[in-house]
Amino acid sequence: MSNQGVLVTYSSSREFLATDHWKQVWAALLCQFPLRTLVWRGPGRSSQSTQTIQDLNVRIAPLESVKQEHTSQVPQTLLEKPLLNLYFVVCEDNETYKNTIKKQIRDWHTIISQRKYQEWLIVHIVRPEGRAAQQRMFQMKTSVLDKIKADFNLDKKDRCVQLVWASDFENPAAWAEFITKLKEGILAAFDSAFTQREAEMKRSEGQIQMPGWNFCTFFILKESLAISLEGINLFEDALEQYNELEAAFFKVVRDRNLSWFGSLIDPDPEDDSAPLLSTTRKPYRDLILGNTISIFDFRIYLLARQCILLSKLGRVAEICRRSEKFLTNFGRRLRELEDTLPEFFIESWIYSSALSVADTCDTWVSAVNLSKASQARYSALKGELMELAQQQLDIIGIRTGHLPSRPPFSIALSAPASRTTQSQRKSQTISRQELLAAISDRDALFDLYVTITNRAIEYYASAGRRKFAIKLHGNLAALDVVRDRLSSAFDTYKNLPAHYAPHGWTSLESFMRMQALSIHTSTEQAKDADWAHIVVDFLKAYVEDMGAELLMDVDDHKAYVTGLIESLRHAAAELQADMLYPDHPALSVTMAESEARLAQDQDGALLEVTVRNQLPCNLPVDEIVAVLAGHEGAQLTFSARVSSIQPGSTRLTLFCPSSTPGMFALQSSQVKMSRVVFERKEAKLAALSKTTRPKDLPALVRIPKDHHAVDVRLRPPKRIELGTPAYMTVSLQTGRNDISVATLRLVSPSGVQFHCQEAAIDEGGDNATLEAADDAIILRDVGKRQIVTVAVPHSDASSYHTLRVNVSIEYTTVTEPNLSRKLNIARFVATSLPITTNVEDFFRGTRLFSLFTLSTTSHQHVRIRSAELKPSRQDADSVSVVSCQSQKPDIVTVTPAQSGQFLFQLDTVRGKARDPMKLHITYRMLREEVESFINAAVAEIVADDPSLLPHRELLIDRLVEALSKSVDWIELYGVTGELVVPGNLSENSELASAFARLKEILGKPRPLNSSFDEWRDIIIPVDIPQMHILAAAQLRIFANPFSQQPSGQALPLFAGQPISAVVTVTTSFHWAPSEDAEMAQYLLRYDIQDMTGDWLVSGPKRGDFSAEDGSTFSSPVTLIALHHGELSLPKVMVNALPLPGKQRMRTSVIPSCETYQLHGAEKVMVLPRGGRTTYVVDMGREAIPA
């Protein structure tokens, strides 16, 4: 059945076959094989469904050497007989062909034509014609070829081809036509033979229900097709034939018609150790034809033929898969007759077959180039074969008593099959030598077990199936227990669960831990951290619905678990460090209520939780902890100390000494047993999405505000002076607490640094003392219901509008000195000025008018009581400041829509040094004013009714909250001082009267300057402006060009009439900088405004002049009004020219100059021009007739 290829015969005249020319043709012909790329459509296939034969071996032999035998009753392969017969002709002229060659071809053709399913081909070789034609060797002579075709191509099929034998006979192109005809002839013959054989096979298959039909004969017939397809390298088609035979066999088995076979198995002496995939060990085909083959041998032969074809297809992994499946399934079938077989025959056969398949596949795979994925799959399947062999060692070991009958060894044992008859076991023994040694020698079995298991582990590891390899490590650990190598077994059992856990092999993981505990107990080792890990993980497996399976060998489960937990508690107390176990299923902590309670008599909150214990016994613990996470990373830790937790649900109350108000989510929970900590972390809020299931949402808890707890407030300072170090005020409110020591730490995420070592108490705290540290503020001895304000300098924060400050306070009280409370809160402080200042300066001779416009920088209203501009102490005698507002309200309210203006007049002495002045603004925010008003009102009713003192903060917060929700009260309060609180505040019946009284007090009219709270001050440095030249320009109209003084009365002015005018410019150096006081004169240029729509200017419209302090320059001009009406006079612009001979940074120095128009508000009335004009109009006369 080896792949020998197709058979082709050749024939020719004896004379030609004896020549050297034939030897050359023969040698060249052999070089054309094997044939490449043959396309076979096959019978019943469409043109789109074809098979490509990549390589086809051809055996060429003389016709005389092939004997034509009579048709045999035994179906043979289609390739045993020739498929094509060749006849080589060498003839150059027609006469020779007619007289000699034609008869030779006719005789050959007569013999060939009698053979069925064979094709023939006549090859005409053109020989050289002599030395004169050396350059044209073997030129074609069509006359002889035409005669051959005419005589023998009787069925219109061209079976003649000409071979031109030239000097380059080794060129493939010279053989192309011949090779094409050769392929066509071979495929045509094979196709016809295959069609005939396939028809016979189908006819036999159709007679399956008829008497006399024989499966074995059908098998041989169909196998002949498979062998023939294999012979032409169509391995896939050949495999399909064997697969169909296998399906037909299974159908026969289902029909229970096995009369064509012998017994199920008739073992020969070496059947248990023979190679599984060998087809030559027995005469399988003869046994099949004789209907004496056993089902055992038949299945082996069929599997071997399939695997051989798979090896030629390069599918070695499938060979391993089919073999492993066959050994498993057929081995289970053999168990039914186990008593009739030699002892351990089945185990020896499976063991030997698994090893032989792996070795055979290794031989076949050397010729195949496997991809990385295919190589991994192949290694994994070999690992399964080795594991199958190892399982046979398990069975042998248990039955010989070398291995105990318990997992993992007993897993391979199958349930005993039911047998209806008792059979006598054969006396022969197995032939596998290493198994014979293992049966008699315990150590030999152990060594063989380790070798096979390690081989399987190696295959699994190379395939990347790590968890399978780890499982086998557990088998080796179990073997170490049997061999009394407990130390090695314990290490293995201890380490394996960590490898099982990622793969979800809970049962194996639990089994390993159980084994580790058993070994640890039997060896009486110290119960250290490793042992504690094993116990906790064992308890995890116990509560996950595996308790009964794990403790099958234990009578009292509860007592066993109780003993483990008690031992765990003693071991945990001896540990040096905490051991954290996340998400242990035995314990869970959940919220019992959605709102926490305040402790009332102390700072802190109480939280109701439910602890669930899944273990069957009490769990001794020390502490229960629940951690809540709030906004911006705020955390609260609730805890309670308990002695034990009963099985089932237990409700507990946890306490947190800090009570930050707000909404919190359960972040994690802990149950502490000495050094062993069971922790469970809940889902992170940041990981939540729309697809999150409701059961995965975190538990939320609301913590109410404790108005009597410690609190910290941050505010801007009451006095802000620009140019001095910045600071803010920190107010500590003690509430109900008598604080012995409080440590405050301020941290700004913006990077602003606080200089705590320079902090000082601003107000409050009669007996309080301050200890300044580098990074903290420490206050001592602060009594109940006191407010201590500390001024804390900080670095520049002017670039931030609002500064966030994270405040951390740690404090202890006099009543609980051993309890340290911590509070982390975020506060926001406005660091920018609440108002902005814009100033406009107006120079008028020796006077300066400065207009300050104050605007708010936020949406809040600012109340301004006063704004004063004060000179420095050094300039008190030389600078005089007068406010120009004759009447002003007591309080100016600056809103986002309305600013406030303040005008000041300055008189200075020329030449005196002018230091910056300071603008003092006294203000307070409307919100602060209202809050102070509310505090005063609450203080008033608390003084009348001291029972309201515990509710003081609640009353204030409720009022502020109500006012924050509406803006309707602001307008009325700004006018009358009445504060009308919107909404209903009487929900609490106990405080209803208090809220009613507060509304009455707040709703009374009162002066706007009432002192509810202290005012704040802003001091802004203001520089005195400087100007080198101040020019007063004026354009005056005269009665005529010769007048020296302007007319005292209004002159009639007409459009188009020339009007005499004089430009005057009066200059002053009063506001010049002191360093330029020595300048006596400047060169100026005036320029009359060009108003071409109203005026025409005649005369020196532009000119330069030299100006001195107090001097006046004048120049006459003539104006002409272009239209009548009330017109403004043109403006006169004055600019300074560069100083001659002075430069700065390579540019000319131009002194500063400002001009104001003395006539800027004047207008003149221009009348339309009047007069009389006489026109003479010729009315015309009648024409005089001629």
UniProtKB/TrEMBL annotation:
Major place of localization? Golgi
One Pfam family linked to the record: DUF7077
Subcellular location per the Swiss-Prot or TrEMBL entry: Golgi apparatus
**Organism per entry:** Rhodofomes roseus
Any idea what this protein is called? Trafficking protein particle complex subunit 10
Which terms are listed as keywords in the entry? Golgi apparatus, Transport
What InterPro entries has UniProt attached to this entry? DUF7077 (IPR055505), TRAPPC10/Trs130 (IPR045126), TRAPPC10/Trs130_C (IPR022233), TRAPPC10/Trs130_N (IPR056913)
* Taxonomic lineage: Eukaryota, Fungi, Dikarya, Basidiomycota, Agaricomycotina
The answer on whether this UniProt entry bears the keyword Magnesium reads no
Q: Which residues form the DUF7077 domain?
A: 708-815
* Location of the TRAPPC10/Trs130 N-terminal domain: 1-320
Q: Where is the TRAPPC10/Trs130 C-terminal domain?
A: 1021-1167
UniProt superkingdom: Eukaryota
